[in-house]
Amino acid sequence: MPLVRIDHSDARTNPTEIATAIHDAIVSVYGIPERDRFQVITSRPATTIIAEDAGLGFERTDPVIIQIFTQRGRATDQKQRLYAAIADALEPVGVAPQDVFIGYVENGAEDWSFGFGRAQYLTGELTVPGA
Known about the structure:
Number of strands: 4
Organism: Microbacterium oryzae
Strand order of the largest sheet: 2-1-3-4
Structural class: alpha/beta
Order of helices and strands: EHEEHEH
Strand content: 15-25%
Largest sheet: 4 strands, mixed
Protein name: Tautomerase family protein
Helix content: 25-40%
Number of helices: 3
Shape: globular
Distance between the termini: 13 Å
CATH architecture: 2-Layer Sandwich
């Protein structure tokens, strides 16, 4: 049940394909249900996205910034597989691997409400992933 925020330049004309590729990678690596999909897609002027190389020595051409908010508990190697799967899935839809930037944020069951003002993981309406 990750919440995924996707920011890209308005030069990209295929935001749905980008979002679907990211979701498919998450489903594949994390084994979440297909309909467990929560994404916010924002297209913005390229001048409003600054994503340099952090000293790694490469140039980005048209970055796609991905923020993944999810519950803690996944192993480091699983996260690394996810990053690779996302980059691999985005390349066929026109996003170069060097243009994929991912920020991963973890939290707990108490940090989610899916509606009705209730924390469904705490009330038992939803099962905590991996529990």
